[in-house]
Design goal:
about 375 residues, Spore Coat Polysaccharide Biosynthesis Protein SpsA, Chain A, binds manganese (II) ion, alpha/beta, 2 domains, seven-stranded mixed β-sheet, binds guanosine-5'-diphosphate-alpha-D-mannose
């Protein structure tokens, strides 16, 4: 009996920190050490840990994390292989924590870590569920951003209002702190696609979260480079669309439809060119237009619809293109087959054609997602 008690008695372990700061990293070697120093200075005397979530950096970031986590018990890291993504990295870091409060900050020193104690104070006081570092609240700023980036950011702020009620002035902010209850309330409904984790948390919470904003000035990156390209804006719109319509129809399917619709224009453009411009035979012109439209659709889908499973490299792209042609050819056969049967059953010719198109499109969507852009295991 006594033996059991001895076994169950807790070891003189490290205490669970009050705050976990999650830092997503991808090739940030030269920023890690300065960031940890700045955080230590800002949170002097507070109980915290820093959890880095690294997506298999090859620039020496991991070696740096290994060394620092061995030297300092407040530093941990998660090494992910075969996956990329800011949002999912943040979510995994938070899920690995037992702390009362959870924060995210970029590794590249662009966020103002001196806000951390104020954020912590707000949450401790129970005045809010989420505290956001905002570049657009009064007193905040975006440093030296170019005009286009400012414009995009402001437009994104407007669009965010479509899916959340909270008065977020900076819904794209990657710098915030929240209670573990707030996070737990959202975590199972998150899209985790892309990088808009804050907006996602607000949009995914069953009740409305109490918000506080603290203004700050976005700093200039000193080391390394930004990983977010122009397509993140696109991802952002996808997240909003998913929250708006995702219940009714998968956003990916909507995307596929839009791309297909654009393909129709390509088809008619090429058809006109070959028929009227070059005086080709109709069969040849129609064949050329079909191949052009399919090729266009393949590349646009690869870029947008399947951004997360994008095929890269000559051989994978070529293989994908061939399988896309093959699937679409079968889709065309199914389309004509169904339309013909419907027509014989005395459907109106327009309805018969529509039935064929619907069957063809659904087939193309389902089959290309299985064969052309198959999900990695
Ligand atoms: N683990 C992981 N995986 N980390 C990543 C990835 C990824 O795929 N992509 C980027 N990161 C890390 C970077 O290493 C950095 O620490 C942080 O995420 C932000 O990435 P940046 O590449 O520096 O982004 P940014 O400065 O262009 O974007 C900032 O502004 C956006 C608002 O427009 C960030 O603060 C975003 O969070 C913010 O939404
Ligand atoms: Mn940055």
């Amino acid at each position: 009996m006594d033996d059991h008690i001895a076994v169950l008695a807790p070891p003189p372990a490290r205490a669970v920190p009050e705050l976990t700061i999650v830092v997503p990293t991808f090739n940030e070697r030269d920023n890690i050490r300065p960031l940890l120093d700045l955080i230590a200075r800002a949170l002097d005397g507070d109980s915290y840990e820093v959890v880095f979530v690294d997506d298999d950096s090859r620039d020496g970031t991991l070696e740096e994390l290994q060394a620092l986590s061995r030297a300092d018990p407040r530093v941990r890291y998660i090494h992910r292989i075969g996956r990329r993504g800011l949002s999912s990295a943040v979510v995994e870091g938070m899920l690995s924590s037992s702390a009362t409060y959870l924060a995210v900050i970029d590794a590249d020193l662009q966020h103002d870590e001196t806000l951390l104690p104020d954020m912590l104070a707000v949450l401790r006081g129970g005045e809010a569920d989420v505290v956001v570092g905002s570049r657009y609240a009064d007193g905040g700023g975006i440093g030296q951003w170019d005009g286009t980036r400012q414009l995009i950011s402001r437009a994104a702020t407007r669009i965010a209002r479509l899916i959340i009620r909270a008065d977020l002035t900076d819904p794209m902010s990657g710098f915030f702190m929240l209670t573990r209850e707030a996070f737990a309330g959202s975590v199972r409904n998150l899209s985790t696609q892309g990088y808009k984790i804050l907006l996602d948390i607000f949009a995914s919470h069953p009740s409305s979260l109490r918000l506080r904003e603290i203004p700050y000035e976005f700093r200039i990156r000193q080391h390394g480079e930004s990983k977010l390209d122009a397509l993140v804006t696109w991802e952002y719109l996808m997240l909003v669309a998913d929250k708006l319509f995702g219940r009714f129809v998968p956003v990916r399917f909507l995307m596929f439809l839009i791309v297909g619709g654009l393909g129709v224009f390509v088809h008619f453009g090429v058809l006109t060119l070959l028929l009227k411009g070059l005086g080709s035979e109709f069969e040849i012109a129609q064949t050329g237009a079909t191949v052009a439209a399919m090729t266009f659709n393949f590349f646009l889908n690869n870029l947008l619809t399947y951004r997360d499973r994008r095929l890269r490299g000559f051989w994978r792209v070529s293989g994908g293109l061939v399988s896309f042609y093959a699937v679409c050819s079968l889709g065309a056969v199914a389309n004509v087959g169904v339309a013909t049967v419907a027509f014989k059953e005395e459907f109106d010719w327009r309805l018969a054609a529509l039935a064929g198109i619907v069957v063809g499109v659904v087939w193309n969507y389902a089959a290309t997602s299985l064969f052309t852009w198959k999900q990695k295991k």
